[in-house]
Amino acid sequence: MSISQDETKGCAYRCQRCSMFIPVIFVFALIAWSYYAFIVAYGANIHNLGLRIFISILYHILLVMFLWSYAMAIFTAPAPSPKHFYLTEEEHANMRSSDRGREVLASVSQRVTVYERTTTGAVRYCELCRCIKPDRSHHCSMCMQCVLKMDHHCPWVGNCVGFSNYKYFVLFLTYTVLYTGFIALCCIPYITNVWKHRSDDPLNFHVLIMFLISLVFCITVFGLFVFHVFLLVHNKTTLESSRPPCFRGGFADAKRYDLGGCGNFKQVFGINPLLWVFPVWSGIGEGHHFETRAYISTDTDVPDRVPA
Predict the structure, then answer these.
(1) Which of 10, 42, 205, 253 is most buried, by the most CB atoms less than 10 A from its CB?
(2) Longest CA pairwise span in the chain (Å)
(3) What's the alpha-carbon Rg for the chain, to the nearest Å?
(4) What local confidence, expressed as pLDDT, does residue 3 receive?
(5) Do 181 and 172 touch, CB atoms closer than 8 A?
(6) pLDDT digit string (tens) for 126-161?
(7) Residue among 2, 10, 238 nearest 144 (CA)
(8) Closest CA to 27 of 188, 166, 159
(9) Mean pLDDT for the stretch of residues 105-114
């Protein structure tokens, strides 16, 4: 019995999707072990009951916020292109059969609002999804779809980071730094004390490894956190930071979406400060139409101020 090419591709895709969660499983396993190492192994060395309760409360608060934001970054589905950006079967057939595909596509694009173009000045089109790409969207080969305001595909969350979950991803980085930094700081007095009194109780192996792993994660993730804070306050994605978007008129503009630090932050985190620290949706917009900065003069037909 022969296996069709489509079945082979489908099996390979399912295997690829499953393998994407290996880093996620590793992270959850590491968290489970670190919980034992901190609460049991490290907690047994805190003889002051009040201090032990205080540290335990702070630890669990950071752990809950870390797991909450991590789960939201993992399980929030990437936002796809709206339905009206997709070509009908007739439109796609006309574009494929005509030697004027670019003109046909430009005509079809009149029903949607898009300002970004390819480097050649053509309307951005995804052949795989058969849709006109909304501004700031890109096709993800791992998720097999166009993702609104795609930032990057992150193996550590097994998901695309984009418009629908970028806030959760930034909070995930924030609470990762706080969680691992808190563990490392708590372990320093214990390790220092054991080192000074080597003749007394031996250093707990779990605590030592937990300290080293927490320190490494804190330092490395902090660098990524700083990078994404920079992107956030300048209203850029990781993809846009390496290749500025092109607009009508055939020019690239790296600052087109920059509304100022405060405006850029609120576009992702919203206007309600009470929701900023929680991984719940509070952003502004629908992900396919973005406010742009005002220009006194411009050679393009992009409006000076496009409302979100």
Answers:
(1) 42
(2) 84
(3) 24
(4) 43
(5) no
(6) 999 999 999 999 999 989 999 999 999 999 999 999
(7) 10
(8) 159
(9) 84
- Burial pattern 113-151, b for ≥16 Cβ within 10 A else e, equals ebbbbeeeeebbbbeebbbbbbbbbbbbebbebbbbbbb
Instruction: Please give the structure tokens belonging to residue 217.
Output: 């994660």
Token pair listed for 120: 């050649």
Can you give the chain as a three-state secondary structure string?
CCCCHHHHHHHHHHHHHHHCCHHHHHHHHHHHHHHHHHHHHHHHHCCCHHHHHHHHHHHHHHHHHHHHHHHHHHHCCCCCCCHHHECCHHHHHHHHHCCCHHHHHHHHHHHCCCCEECCCCCECEECCCCEECCCCCEEECCCCEEECCCCEEECCCCEEECCCCHHHHHHHHHHHHHHHHHHHHHHHHHHHHHHHCCCCCCCCHHHHHHHHHHHHHHHHHHHHHHHHHHHHHCCCCHHHHHCCCEECCCEECCCCCCCCHHHHHHHHHCCCHHHCCCCCCCCCCCCCCCCCCCCCCCCCCCCCCCCC
CA dist., res. 143 & res. 24, Å (int): 16
Cα-based torsion angle of the residue sequence 231, 140, 74, 173 in order, rounded to the nearest 10 degrees:
-20
Tokens read off for 247 = 């607009």
- Orientation angle between helical segments 89-97 and 101-108, nearest 10 degrees: 150
pLDDT at 21: 85
**Position 14 pLDDT exceeds 90:** no
Dihedral sign for Cα 106, 111, 116, 118, please: negative
Q: What is the pLDDT of residue 95?
A: 80
Residue 150 in contact with residue 136, Cβ under 8 Å? yes
β-pairing, 152-154 with 145-147?
unpaired
* Active site residue ranges: 154
